[in-house]
Specification:
The structure holds two protein chains of two kinds. Chain A has helices at 8-16, 21-44, 47-64, 74-96, 101-114, 122-132, 136-147, 152-159, 163-181. By secondary structure, chain A is mostly helical. Chain B is mostly helical. In chain B, helix 10 packs antiparallel against helix 11 (164-176). The chains are: A mainly alpha, B mainly alpha. At the A-B interface, helix 2, helix 3 and helix 6 of A face helix 4 and helix 5 of B.
Chain lengths: 184, 188
């Protein structure tokens, strides 16, 4: 039986009611888990890391949802938490292994070819490796625009960067990826 | 002078040397290159990665039934977090590397501060200082007669000339008023 699709406003209303709080949160997780997971997965690459980060994100959402004042859309707010958590995770990884940030991405790039949960062909692997060569912020902008198909205005709301800066960032990212892929 | 006239004149009129070289191509291409070029371009276009199709496919995968189990996993994590006592959460935060260094520094500063402000201040008396109580308890004054006092005063005179006038005045005062120096003991 298909689940009733509630709007974010209805879900938040139910969440604020103590009797339906857990039910509403469960619906929020089910509604957004895939979008949030794939966003995180493209940043941290490995499924195990993405699984840790996505759980942390939803725990943070659970703790902070009471204070969410609906100034922005719920998914925009959750995307922001997911982006920050993913960047924090990569920074921790860098600190834990005492390696420069660029090398973390190099390591991620190498791990792609051995990842059992990566089924891409040669072109897809090359595209992901090209994306991993980008600076983190540029990589996130590229992922959100290219893979998630988000509008610049939506990305701007998540990252707190102007639309103009995002367009420039995406343009540079595309140029770099094109150069990398056609480089052979 | 020539170059100056060239710059000032019509830019279409090149200097004679440049005019002579105009239209001459010093570079050359391999034999038959341009015959094959069109085919090479066609082939490169065919082999171009199809970004459109790549963007529509998802190369990443998840374990079987992952998204069905995820809400329950999150629920369990939240329940576990809620059962954790608040002090334990604070302890975990304080034990994070960044916090623990800051916390240790603050604790060290507090300990040093408390030690500094609560330290015992000891003002050492001069070694040869004798209090009036010590003097009266010692019995020295009772053993002392006025001759000794005069001698002592004389000694003072010999070492401290600047107080000789005061000492003479005291001597004179004691004699004139017939004061027994031993009486001084009770006053000290």
């Amino acid at each position: 039986m298909p689940m009733t699709e509630y709007t974010d406003s209805e879900l938040l209303q139910q969440f604020r009611d103590e009797t339906t709080r857990h039910y509403a949160f469960n619906l929020i997780v089910r509604k957004y888990q895939q979008r949030i997971y794939w966003h995180i997965r493209r940043i941290v690459i490995s499924h195990d890391d993405a699984n840790d980060v996505v759980q942390n994100v939803f725990i943070k959402v659970w703790k902070a949802l009471d204070g969410f004042r609906e100034d922005s859309q719920l998914y925009t707010w959750m995307y922001r938490i997911a982006t920050n958590e993913s960047i924090t995770f990569l920074n921790q990884k860098k600190r834990r292994f005492a390696i420069p940030f660029s090398d973390v991405e190099h390591e991620l790039s190498n791990s792609l070819s051995n990842d059992v949960y990566f089924s891409g062909d040669k072109i897809q692997l090359k595209l992901q490796q090209a994306v991993l060569k980008l600076p983190t912020q540029q990589r996130i902008v590229f992922n959100m625009k290219y893979f998630d198909g988000m509008k610049y205005e939506e990305i701007s709301a998540v990252l707190g960067v102007t639309v103009g800066a995002l367009k420039a960032s995406y343009h540079h990212a595309v140029k770099k990826i094109e150069k990398y892929i056609l480089g052979d | 002078m020539k170059s100056e006239s060239f710059l000032q004149g019509d830019p279409e009129n090149l200097p004679p040397k440049l005019e002579q070289m105009k239209g001459h191509n010093p570079f050359s291409a391999p034999e038959g290159y341009f015959d094959q070029l069109q085919d090479s371009i066609q082939s490169a276009i065919v082999n171009l990665p199809d970004f459109e199709s790549v963007s529509k496919t998802q190369p990443f995968e998840t374990p079987e039934g992952y998204f069905e189990k995820l809400p329950l996993a999150i629920r369990k994590r939240i329940e576990a977090e809620e059962q954790t006592p608040a002090w334990k959460e604070w302890l975990q935060i304080l034990l994070r590397p960044g916090f623990s260094v800051a916390f240790a520094s603050v604790a060290l500063l507090c300990i040093l501060g408390v030690k500094y402000f609560t330290r015992e201040i000891v003002v050492q008396s001069p070694q040869n200082f004798i209090s009036s109580t010590d003097l009266s308890n010692s019995g020295l004054l009772s053993d002392m007669d006025d001759t000794m006092l005069y001698e002592a005063l004389d000694g003072e005179n010999s070492t401290a000339e600047n107080t000789s006038e005061d000492n003479s005045a005291i001597e004179q005062y004691l004699i004139d008023n017939d004061i027994d120096p031993t009486q001084l003991e009770s006053h000290l």
